[in-house]
Specification:
The chain is mainly β. It has one domain. The protein is built from one helix and four strands; from the N terminus they run ββαββ. The longest helix has 6 residues.
Length: about 70
């Protein structure tokens, strides 16, 4: 499970957290919450666009491209 989370991410389910490059207002790497529990890095690495989604916990932008999502 992730440690040292920033305030904006502390209320999220830790099993669903990923870090991603937010393409919304943030335009930087932010914590996001997936729509389901984290399936594992190997699954995310080979996933197709729209197979998973995650919402930026800072600005709310939803990402559908699991490219470079990590913990």
């Amino acid at each position: 499970m992730p440690r040292n989370l920033p305030e904006y991410a502390k209320g999220a389910d830790p099993r669903r957290l990923v870090r991603l490059l937010c393409k919304g207002k943030c335009s930087c790497v932010r914590w996001a919450e997936m729509e389901q529990s984290h399936p594992g890095d190997d699954v995310l690495r080979t996933a197709q666009v729209f197979e998973f989604s995650a919402r930026c916990l800072c600005c709310g932008k939803i990402a559908h491209d699991p490219y470079n999502w990590f913990r």
